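User: Predict the structure for this protein chain, please.
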Amino acid sequence: MTMDRTSAQYDIEKKSLIAAYVLWFFLGYIGAHRFYLGRPLSGFVMLALSGVTLLLTLVSFGVLGFLWFVVGLWWLVDALLIPGMAASSNSRIADRVFSRR
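Assistant: Here is the predicted structure, written as structure tokens:
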């Protein structure tokens, strides 16, 4: 593969920080940004936590609604972690793409 094609392949596959933040803002409470950034395990944990919290809130008629604080806190902390997660994901992509030479 030529260097131009390799660089183009990297540009196609790299993760966008803007896209990650858009996913975080609109679907962050279910971990969509984590799935996008190549962290499916923690994304699934966040999705499961939101689902369990929703179920407990509905079953308890809102009494256990304070559990959304945990989901919200994780969501807010992720706003600070997204740049590092994107850099890590892009580094793995670069290692994979550029090692084909």
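The mean pLDDT is 94.
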